[in-house]
Every structure is written in structure tokens, then in C-alpha cells.
Amino acid sequence: MKVKNVKLSGVKSYADNPRKNEKAIEVVMKSIDEYGFKVPIILDKESVIVAGHTRVMAAERLGMKEVPAIYADDLNEKQIRAFRIMDNKSQEYAEWDEELLSAEFKFLNDAGFDMELTGFTKEDVDMGLKLNEAENENIMGDRHEVIMLVPPEAPRLKERMMLKCKRIEDYKKIKNFFEKNEDLLVETLLEMVK
Q1: DSSP 8-state code for residue 193
Q2: Residue 148: which H helix or E strand, with range?
Q3: What is the DSSP string of 43-105?
Q4: Could you tell me which residues are beta bridge partners of residue 68?
Q5: DSSP 155
Q6: Residue 62 in contact with residue 37, Cβ under 8 Å?
Q7: What is the mean pLDDT of residues 144-170?
Q8: pLDDT at residue number 141
Q9: How confident is the model at residue 142 (pLDDT cuts 50, 70, 90)?
Q10: Domain map of the chain by residue range?
Q11: What pLDDT, on a 0 to 100 scale, did the predictor assign at position 118?
Q12: Quick one: fold of 4-93?
């Protein structure tokens, strides 16, 4: 597999791309501007994008003339179409470990790093930092667990929510209730949170 620089003028968008990229372009522009173009795009043998539409649009808006690319000339047409979908869909299966993410936020925030360059909104970062503070309180002796619930991982919710639970056992039950649609009486739920 060889990575080669290709002229953006020769790269073609896939006309039937089912992914809507517009909202992600600005975030990717900031990423490329800060870190460089670190993830090559993938092209078919006709230089049509297999993966990397957002990166290409971001590069164009940044005025770049070339981008790194890999040619997937070992895949047939059916595989290329399926890979386009899989490349985007597979990301939806990954989940964040809120505790580890909040620790990363704290490190970067304490170091004075521009938190916008993580790709998270200010609201997300603030919530992550609050989670980190709550975990530190827990270590210091105030026994409670914090759960941060974010759609679509929590299908019962329309917007993110953060709850303080009185016990670790309650934390697990509440997490299962919101994320796996397990039964839990509302009265019981209210008793489990602060």
C-alpha cells in the first residue's frame, strides 16, 4: 500500500455519497490546520473518492493543492460501494469511556490547549470536566458515581444528561436502563440519583 500526493483538481467526489458532510467540514479544517493532513483519502482507480469526502472539502476550503491518497485498486465495484458505507458506519459502533475522556480533557485544559481542536463542543468539554471533578470528589471520599448519557448510545434520550448516582450498583442499573432499554420504575430511578 503506497501513499502518494495527488492533485485535488484530479480528485472526483462520488455523486451518490449518502453521507452528509457539511457540518463536519469546519472541524476537519481546524484539525488539518493544527495537525496537518494525517489521514490519507482513499480513491478508486478512476480517482473517485472511496473515503475522505470531508477531508477533501476541508482541504479545498483551506486552499490546498494536493492531499495524500491511497488507491484501492484491489477492490471491485461492489466492494468499493460497500466499503464507503462501512467506513462511515463502523464509527457509530465505538463508544467513549467517559472517565478516560474526562481525564484527557482535564490534561489538555490544564495545559492551556485550545479545546476546540478536540472536535468537541464547549458544552461537551465542560460536561467532561465536570465529570472529572466529580470523579476526584469520589476519590476523596464523597461516594457517588457520575453517569454521562449521550444519544444515540442512550436511545431513550433526546439530549445528553449527567446524573449523580448514590451507589455503584445504581450507576450500573441506570446505565443499562438508558442504553439497553431495560426496565426500571421511574420512582426507583429518582431514588437512585441525587
Answers
A1: B
A2: strand 145-149
A3: E-TTSBEEE-HHHHHHHHHTT-SEEEEEE-TTS-HHHHHHHHHHHHHGGGG----HHHHHHHH
A4: 5
A5: T
A6: no
A7: 59
A8: 41
A9: very low
A10: 4-93, 98-192
A11: 92
A12: 3.90.1530
- The confidence score (pLDDT) of residue 138 equals 47
Q: For the ranges 5-9, 11-15, 27-31, 180-184, which has the lowest average pLDDT? A: 180-184
Cβ atoms 11, 43 nearer than 8 A: yes
- Tell me the pTM: 0.66
DSSP strand pairing (66-71 vs 41-43): parallel
> Would you give the end-to-end CA distance of the chain in angstroms?
54
Question: Please, which residues have CB within 8 angstroms of residue 182's CB and are 6 or more apart in sequence?
Answer: 173, 176
C-alpha cell at 156: 431513550
How high does pLDDT run on average in the chain? 81
Is 6 strand, coil or helix? Answer: strand
Q: Residue length, the chain? A: 194
